[in-house]
Write a structure and sequence with these properties.
By secondary structure, the chain is mainly α. Helices cover 86% and strands 0% of the residues.
Length: 79
């Protein structure tokens, strides 16, 4: 009986994972659609994606990224 319960629990976990993976795919497709729409209006999708990533960062991580970027820009001769 224990093996039967374990098999049912495992099947349940696997089913839930499959459902979530399907949802992730659907969300990914929706996001792609938003990028396509933004591009059709003249916006740069790569820049939007970068801005979204920066906005998700913690303030201290964003500051560290800004500092590193400044170092790289100075090394490249930018001011």
């Amino acid at each position: 009986m224990t093996n039967e319960l374990e098999a049912e629990a495992l099947a349940s976990y696997m089913e839930r994972i499959e459902q979530l993976e399907n949802q992730r795919t659907e969300v990914g497709n929706l996001i792609k659609g938003v990028f396509t729409e933004a591009e059709s209006k003249g916006f740069d999708a790569q820049t939007i994606a970068y801005a979204v990533e920066i906005c998700k960062m913690r303030p201290e991580d964003r500051q560290a990224l800004d500092e590193i970027l400044q170092i790289y820009m100075l090394a490249h001769g930018e001011k």
